[in-house]
Structures are given as C-alpha cells and as structure tokens.
Amino acid sequence: VLCWQPNAGTTINSQILIEVSECVESINGVKEGGWKNTFCFYKPMLKEQANASEFPQHFFGASLQEQPNKFYMALSRKRLIVEAESSMQTIMENLQSYRIKFALNCEGFHYRLGNFRVRVGKVVPMTSENLRGIVMEVCKYF
Length: 142
Known about the structure:
Largest sheet: 7 strands, antiparallel
Protein name: Mediator of RNA polymerase II transcription subunit 20
Number of helices: 2
Structural class: mainly beta
Order of helices and strands: HEEEEHEEE
Family: Belongs to the Mediator complex subunit 20 family.
GO molecular function, one term: transcription coactivator activity
Distance between the termini: 21 Å
Pfam families: Med20 (PF08612)
Strand order of the largest sheet: 4-3-2-1-5-6-7
Subunit structure: Component of the Mediator complex.
C-alpha cells in the first residue's frame, strides 16, 4: 500500500481516477470488468470494562469480491489473520460483541496488462459517495 498525498491545496477528485485509468489504457491495458471490496474497522462493545483485556481492542475486516463466502479479520495486537465464513459478520452483529467504527468501499475496474492485472478504483465511505482516496493494485497472473 502506497499512501500518496496530493500537493497542498489540491483535493482528490474523480478526475484523477479517470486520468489514472486512461494511463493504464494508453499502455495497452485491456479493461476486463469491475470489482468491489469492503473494508471495515471494528471496535468491541464491552458490557463490563473488567473484560476489556480478553478482547482485541480493534480489528480490521475485509470482504473480497473474488471470495464472496469468506470474511478476513486482522487482529493487529496479536499479529493474526483469521479467515472465516462470510456469516461471521452477522454473528458478531447478533451477539453485539463488535460494531463497525467505519467502513470503506473500494470499487473500480481491472485491466489486463500483459502478464499483470491492474486494478484502479475509488475509495469511498460506505455511508456516502465522498471520494476519500484512490486505490491501485498490480499483481502477476499465474
């Protein structure tokens, strides 16, 4: 992940996303379709503060379009990645053990560029359409 900050006084807007997509196409990138992933940051809903040490303070959750039946959790303090069924989110909501602090949708298009897949997309909060960032992913096809 590369964190990029625009120059002072400049804002991130959809025009930048269009320009990045055009750049990929200009070097013979072939648009193959769309993609969408959701990333959530969770915090515990503790009923008793005495139990606080037993639960991870915060964790990161990811739902990926390529694996719709899976849900991934990253527990940062424990340095642990957990793969679960997608129903895990519903279980946590029903148990009222964790709640979403905030969630982001990343969506856009993916391109084939030789032996590589390039994804270009926007990052928006789940509850609005305000552009918060741009994501670009490059990976090698096997």
